[in-house]
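Changelog-adjacent note: as of this version, every example in the card shows the full chain rather than a window. The one below runs 161 residues end to end.
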Amino acid sequence: MSEPYDSRFTLPSIDDAPSTEAGVILMGLDAERLLAGVGLARLADEPALVALAVDQARHDALDLSTEALAEAGILRWRAVRPLIEAGPEMTAAGSLRREWEHTTARVVATVTGLGPASVACLAACWLRRDDIDDRVKFAERGRTPEKGSGTHDVLSRVFAD
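Full-length structure tokens:
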């Protein structure tokens, strides 16, 4: 009698796209790092946002801490999660790598204008949506905006689209 076969730990096929292996790695990150990745990927996928970030950095108005990136990722996740959820239902693949491929296809089909970094980070968040949603709820309870704050983070407003 042989041991039960667990396909989650198989080596990748030589035909698998490198982005699939990157996705497997992304899925191992904690929720805050995934959300920070969503925030940064949104910036990197859009040349206008990169130019805006450079201008803000030049004027010492840009905060690229993990917390700030995670906050930007939370704003982006709130905006796109309903779109991804409304996407076509896909059957469970039974393999982590096939599941990644199905999920990236779902993200691409439901959210327009994404670059490869956003697709990867949002797909990882979708596959880990319970953890991500818990982190978002924690952030909502744990922080309240400061009243009368003179600091305006333009990037966060842009990410909220």
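Structural remarks: Residues 144-154 have pLDDT under 50 and may be disordered.
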